[in-house]
Amino acid sequence: MMEPAYLTSTRASYDTVASSYASLVRPMYDNKPFDRAMLAAFAELVDGPVADLGCGTGIVTGYLAGLGVRVSGVDLSPGMVAVARRDHPELEFSVGSMNSLDLADSSVGGVVAWYSIIHTPVELLPEIFAEFRRVLVPGGHLMVAFKAGDEIRHLAQGYGHDIELDVYWLEPDLVAKLAHDAGFTEVARLVRIADADEKGPQGYFLARVPDVDES
Ligand SMILES: C[S@@+](CC[C@H](N)C(=O)[O-])C[C@H]1O[C@@H](n2cnc3c(N)ncnc32)[C@H](O)[C@@H]1O
């Protein structure tokens, strides 16, 4: 089957920016206390192995590992995965798509999708959330970071390179509905206003799969 065009352009764009992405993005986290707080809450709640889906160069993967989480990363872009392996040789990373994960049903205790659902057309997001749900155990946690809004922005430039990338800004209520429809129970959500290096509000959404005796 032919790959959808958005996956091809997303992969090509991140392959192009991979070399500069980590050095430009990593230092930002020093000034993002709310991002770190959400990840810390997730790290405290989660039990069992965590899959960081759309892990990019492994910045969040490494951060969670530093909090004691057993975590590995998956990303569409071989270029991003190569940088993740270079920067975090102690962690496991693989190339793959969260549209169809190479993970067994009920095999992970946590899924992180940190700004990685933002390139998927909205009408395809139910498939992605169903895939998150499929791989999580009962009681497992899902942590999603996204750009909060309701528009599509096309990027022809990013991280100092020419790219072709659509970014889907998502209303928090839509993210909550996608999670609910996939079988998740909401735990917490946060919207913070834009920092100086951002173009709009940022959203964070934490949910869990009901335990067997809850569903
Ligand atoms: C904005 S970057 C975020 C990377 C990382 N999570 C971080 O916070 O630094 C988005 C990443 O999601 C990946 N991605 C986008 N769609 C994907 C998909 N369908 N499957 C796997 N990875 C995907 C991209 O290749 C890219 O590395």
Automatic annotation (TrEMBL):
Keywords: Ubiquinone. Residues 50-140 form the Methyltransferase domain. Pfam families: Methyltransf_25. The keyword ATP-binding does not apply. InterPro entries: Methyltransf_25, Methyltransf_Superfamily, SAM-dependent_MTases_sf. This is Ubiquinone/menaquinone biosynthesis C-methylase UbiE. The lineage of its organism: Bacteria, Bacillati, Actinomycetota, Actinomycetes, Pseudonocardiales.
